[in-house]
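Subject: Sanity check before I submit

Could someone independently write out the structure tokens for this chain? I want to compare against mine line by line before I put it in a report. The sequence has 446 residues.
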Amino acid sequence: MNSLIEKLEYDSSDYYTKYNLIGEGILDCLSEILSADFKGCNFLIITDEKIWEHVSSYFKTFMGKGKIVSIEMFPSDPAPYADLESIEKVASSILSFNSIPIAVGSGTINDIVKRAAYLCDTKYICIPTAPSVDGFSSSGAAITVNGFKTTLECLPPYYIIADNNIIAEAPIELISAGYGDLVAKLTGGADWIIADVLAIERIDNAAWLLSQNAARRLFYQSDKIKNRNHDIIIELYKGLIDTGLAIQLYKDSRPASGTEHLLSHALEMMTYLNHEQVFHGHKVALGTVIVSAMMNEIFNENGSFFRDIVNGRLMNKDLLKYRLSIADTVPLAPAIKNQIQSISKTKTPDQHKLEKRIENIAANWALLCCKIDKHLPPYKEILNTLLTAGCPTKAKDLNLNSDDIYSAIHIASLIRNRYTILDMASELGILDSVIETILSYKYDII
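---
Independent answer below. Compare away.
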């Protein structure tokens, strides 16, 4: 095996992924690597035309060693879309060729293959071609089902194998998207702190360190991302893989996902019929800016809400009615609205529990403010580091307007049971006021 191959060490008993390999020239050793578990197997490479045009030369050795290797090629225009139709197509090919699937590409290809392999009850291999998302190593696949972006059950890849040169030479927009997805762990972590302090969902230290340390290592490296520093881009890739491993460890996406990801999903639900090809990490980057502004407004002791919250004077007494009214008015298909209404009923506490929650928020407010301030970089630093890396930081960067953002925030508050800043703001009855404030000239998000 090539001596430059680096095996990222971890206690594999805690993870489904057996090997996580990266190195220069590693794909020349692909046959030898796979023979440990897949000797004599047929293989099916799933990719798209554009990706294969750029990386096919790396697979010449593998395809020339007498193996039976088939290729399932998606068109690149339009780009592949992670929906049930694409999954069924790949699953059919896996069964038809009786093969071990190999996902060659970025996030969408991986999600499609991950779910298809799960349905076929087979292991799969992931070969990332860009440091664009944390989903390579995560369990679960982000799939659009009837317009509702959801995470479907499936196992992570059994092997993850990446060539340094492919990763470092990826298109800069995919690298910046990956950077946006990694920085988002900081606002996602702030959401988890809120849930932890309020005793709703305790922080798991091992999963926390995997995702948060990766984000902190790279936060002040955006200039090097912009300038395509080879070593920093490889570190970005490793950080994204670490975050996916945190999801495996925790068996839920909480370590990697907070309000900023819910906003990304909401935007996808609003535009899914157009299949608009905005990279996941770029939508999440804008979501991170929005969440950072919200947290700055809510937790700042000079903000509009601080005194009323700490004195327990705020509570949305008509919380369920408020949430159901959102479900009735947002611009979504009927099936999505029905699901949002169902989630709203499930996640809304009764009056007694809500009163106790408000008391708990007030009693822990000083602790919450201290923890959030210590954890989350200042709003302007988050804004500037994402901007430097080439991420969108304004709604207009993604052809969105204030109405789109207003609707997306409301939708995001209702599409998961996960407790976030949106839930706390809704329970306090200040969500609309916070949205109006961050959409004003004060934050210049539009």
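---
OP: Matches mine. For the report I'm noting this point. The chain has a mean pLDDT of 91.
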